[in-house]
Amino acid sequence: MSTPTVPTVKLNDGNEIPILGYGLGTANFKRSSSKDVFDEAVVSATVTAIKAGYHHLDGAEAYGNELELGAAIKQSGVARSQLFVTTKTSCRRGETIELAFSRSLEKLGLDYVDLYLIHSPFFGDDGKAATKEQLQAKWAEVEALKDSGRAKSIGVSNYLREHLDAILETAKHKPAVNQIEFHPYLQHEGGLLDYHKEKGITVEAYSPLTAVTKAKGGPVDEVYEKLAKKYGVTAGDVALRWVLDQGVVALTTSKSEERLKGWLGGLWGFELSKDEVDEISTKGREKHFRGYWNNKFEEGDRR
Q1: In angstroms, what CA-CA distances link 186 with 102, 213, 303?
Q2: Going by C-beta distance under 8 Å and a sequence separation of 6 or more, which residues neighbour residue 32?
Q3: pTM above the 0.90 mark?
Q4: Which pLDDT band holds residue 36 (cuts at 50, 70, 90)?
Q5: What number of other Cβ atoms are within 10 A of residue 98's Cβ?
Q6: What is the pLDDT of residues 243-270, one digit of tens each?
Q7: What does the pLDDT look like over 173-225, one tens digit per residue?
Q8: Of 162, 156, 263, the residue nearest 202 (C-alpha)
Q9: Residue 297 contacts residue 290 (beta carbons within 8 Å)
Q10: Residue 68 near residue 94, CB atoms below 8 Å
Q11: What is the average pLDDT score of the chain?
């Protein structure tokens, strides 16, 4: 049986990104107490994902598993040119982007990455959002990596409109991607998705399955189930399609080979209509749930 081919979309720099990726956060995240211990289980899970057809691999230094991701890439037997590898910098205080990037490349055992992201804008004093000047300075450092060819595309993660506005004022290269938590219970009020379209920045969604996992028991459950029955798929398939059918790249993860293969086998056989996407969106606005970075936002902040 042949490995499914995941469709791609073109980024603003001309490079292409697979619209479905395997994330090494969440299930494969290593706690600080175990970050120095090499985890064969993470390697095995990632090799399984690669062999199942997930050639878009999303990592980060903060996940503590870049060594395992690099080992999985080697063990998979899939040519480097067939993989799309992402990692992210946490912008540690007193450390240059060059130093962080070089360390990540060494751990990954790679000569380049396909996408390098600033993990969040919260690298300012006392863990607050960085100032306009700090955002611009760090972005300039990331741009140097693209100019060197060692990061094919560059972008950000968890940035809001004001953070993007700041770096776009001085950017030589626009961010190709902004990776954000995105699901029906966190749709980012204020037109954030429309803003990205206007600026030509691709949105990547992490935690797109939140409404069927962490926040199950909410208003979209009934709609998911209705559409799953209509199309002969799972509620998870519907949740991912809701993301994809809005032109957003989806990142997901699982240690189950059956579930991983199920998504690849089921997602390309159907699309949601605009009315169905809108129905999920409307029901989703009845509930607010943010799974990550809650300490950076006031309760009820839907941005």
Answers
A1: 34, 14, 8
A2: 64
A3: yes
A4: confident
A5: 14
A6: 999 999 999 998 888 999 999 988 999 9
A7: 999 999 999 999 999 998 999 999 999 999 999 999 999 999 999 999 999 99
A8: 156
A9: yes
A10: no
A11: 95
Taken in order 72, 77, 78, 79, the sign of the CA dihedral is positive
* CA distances for 263 relative to 4, 50, 169, 200, 225, angstroms: 10, 14, 39, 28, 16
With CA atoms as reference, report the closest residue to 207 among 226, 230, 231, 180. 180
**Which structural domains are found in the chain, ordered by start?**
9-295 (3.20.20.100)
Residue written as tokens 């140097």? 144
Question: Which residues are marked as active site?
Answer: 63
Q: Return d(Cα 58, Cα 251) in angstroms, integer.
A: 8
Strand duo 202-206 + 177-181: pairing: parallel
Helix-helix angle 221-231:235-244, to 10 degrees: 100
Q: Which residue reads 């598993």 in tokens? A: 65
- Contact criterion met (CB below 8 Å) for 238 and 49: no
183 is in an annotated binding site: no
Q: Is the dihedral of CA 74, 78, 79, 81 positive or negative?
A: negative
Contacts 24+ apart (CB under 8 A), 268-273: 268/4, 268/7, 269/231, 269/233, 270/231, 270/233, 270/237, 270/241, 271/241, 271/245, 272/227, 272/238, 272/241, 272/242, 272/245
Task: Look at the chain and count its residues.
Answer: 303
Q: Residue 160: name the closest of 200, 193, 136 by CA.
A: 193
Distance of CA 122 to the CA centre of its chain: 17
